[in-house]
Design a protein that fits this description.
Layout (H helix, E strand, L loop, with lengths): L2 H27 L8 H20 L1 H9 L5 H17 L4 H24 L6 H18 L5 H9 L5 H23 L15 H15 L6 E5 L5 E5 L2 E6 L7 H18 L16 H15 L3 H14 L1 H4 L4 H8 L16 H17 L7 H13 L25 H20 L3 H6 L4 H10 L9 H9 L6 H15 L4
Parallel strand pairs: 1-3
Antiparallel strand pairs: 2-3
Length: 496
């Protein structure tokens, strides 16, 4: 091992460690940070991200990257991934990096204050600052006239508006008539409406679900936050959050399953990749494929609730005594127009994503002002979902993403749904008896299959290349549409 390679490995590890500390500080910011500590955390994150940036753009790192030619495939992949990140970083002035870090921390505080007040006004100046800084960042990175492409690259490397917009448009055109047909059918009676579900009992049940999925609670933990998310510092320290609503157990259950899918991905990287650039998903779309596969293909399946519903009844014997497992299955798959994305059903969820994508695309292009965003949100919600929010918290303030300047993130949820359907189809083909195993509460076979096919690959491949390698198909909506048509056609007794 020559000196350049030793120095390169050391810098990779240092960057991973700094990134882990940034992740820990961000997780704490959304869970346990004292209310008055927002400014202090903003300064700390600014310093940490500044240090990360300095080490990433260090000219010596560029020299080491050029001097080293690894013989093994993993070494070559590490250098490719680090070069991708560094090439973008060297285009950003340190001032912009620090300003963004500060604006992101202030943005979260402003969003929380706006939600508490149920008023968009406290968040407006912070979002305007973040939007301006993201535009500046996109211009520094460079693009072919579509600023959004540069921002999208952060979350979905290789994806462009010119490809993404037609994919989402075609998906919307296919989904809208399916949703309309379902909405014309009788709505199943809810198994949970009008009842109270103790928060502590819900919490205990979510931990049971995590353990059954194979999430290692000795290498991670779950906490509560306003908006469920996953993060952490290392594959041996993965942090999840969920939220509890005592009028219904659905947010806690499906928030946990969703974030648990993310957590399994983070815990599943190959040990030889720890503290290297390969211990990373190649895109957020692929990361979301894991959470959406567990949440929808597994967690909303009939077999899953044949096993787990009796366990839920143990937690809530009085509340669920009159509802069968089939009735609960129908409840968790009820299709309805909903204002809240994270509580929407499997069919209408992608329409929520299209709403956000189209709005943020217009914000970045300068065709929509932040001041007009609440009105535009309400109008677009009515256009796509037939509803109008009555207040900002159930409208423009419901998601945390823009408070961190995460513009370009939302489309990855839809991409994740499409990738998830293709992976699920292949898993069923390659794992005979998978659905029978799920109905017996045996989930580790699926976890291990995903660990081998997806998790341990890290960033060896780009997202679509990895999906194509596993399934034989690239980005397509065919598997997703086949899945929802079969499932909801049977559930609602209608031909789709």
């Amino acid at each position: 091992m020559n000196a350049s390679f030793e120095m390169l490995i050391g810098r990779m590890q240092e960057l991973k460690d700094l990134g882990g500390l940034i992740g820990l500080a961000t997780w704490d910011q959304q869970t346990y940070l004292p209310k008055k500590a927002g400014t202090a955390r903003a300064e700390q994150l600014s310093t940490l991200q500044g240090l990360y940036h300095e080490r990433l753009v260090d000219p010596r790192l560029g020299e080491w990257l050029e001097a080293v030619t690894p013989a093994d495939a993993d070494g070559k992949s590490m250098i490719r991934v680090l070069k991708l990140e560094r090439d973008r970083a060297v285009k950003l002035p340190a001032r912009l990096v620090k300003e963004l870090a500060t604006a992101q921390a202030h943005g979260l505080s402003a969003w929380l204050a706006a939600r508490e007040a149920n008023d968009f006004a406290p968040f407006k100046p912070a979002l305007e600052t973040l939007l301006q800084l993201r535009r500046e960042q996109a211009d520094a990175w460079g693009h072919d006239g579509e600023r959004y492409d540069a921002l999208l690259e952060t979350y979905e490397p290789g994806m462009r508006v010119a490809r993404l917009s037609p994919v989402l448009k075609a998906l919307t055109q296919k989904l809208v008539p399916v949703v309309q047909t379902i909405l014309e059918r009788p709505v199943p009676d809810s198994a949970v409406a009008g009842k109270r579900f103790d928060g502590n009992a819900q919490w205990d049940f979510t931990l049971q679900l995590l353990k059954a999925m194979g999430f290692d609670l000795a290498a991670g933990r779950q906490d509560k936050s306003v908006h469920p998310f996953s993060g952490g510092t290392h594959p041996l320290d993965v942090r999840l959050t969920t939220r509890v609503n005592e009028t219904t157990p659905m947010p806690a259950i499906f928030g946990t399953i969703h974030e648990g899918g993310h957590g399994l991905y983070e815990q599943g990287f190959a040990e030889s990749h720890y503290r290297t650039p390969l211990a990373c998903a190649p895109s957020m779309g692929l990361h979301e494929s894991q959470s959406r596969l567990w949440e929808n293909m597994v967690g909303r399946s009939r077999g899953y609730w044949r096993y787990f519903y009796p366990l839920l009844q143990v937690k809530f014997p009085a509340e669920l005594k009159d509802a069968s497992a089939d009735a609960f299955y129908a409840t968790v798959n009820t299709v309805s127009r909903s204002l809240i994305r994270v509580e929407s059903d499997e069919l209408t969820y992608n329409l929520h994503i299209v709403l956000r994508y189209e709005l943020e695309l217009e914000l970045v292009r300068g065709n929509l002002s932040v001041a007009d965003l609440p009105h535009a949100w309400n109008e677009k919600t009515f256009e796509l979902l037939g509803l109008r929010p009555s207040h900002p918290v159930e409208g423009v303030l419901q998601d945390i993403h823009w408070s961190g300047g995460d513009i370009g993130y939302f489309p990855t949820y839809a991409l994740g749904n499409l990738y998830a359907a293709s992976l699920w189809k292949t898993a069923r083909e390659q794992l005979p008896g998978l659905e029978a195993d799920i109905a017996r509460g045996q989930l580790l076979g699926l976890r291990d299959w995903l660990r081998e096919k997806v998790h341990r690959q890290g960033f060896r491949y780009f997202a679509e290349d990895l999906v194509k390698h596993v399934t034989g198909r690239g980005l397509t909506d065919e598997d997703f549409m086949a899945h929802v048509k079969a499932k909801y056609g049977e559930l609602y007794g209608v031909s789709l």
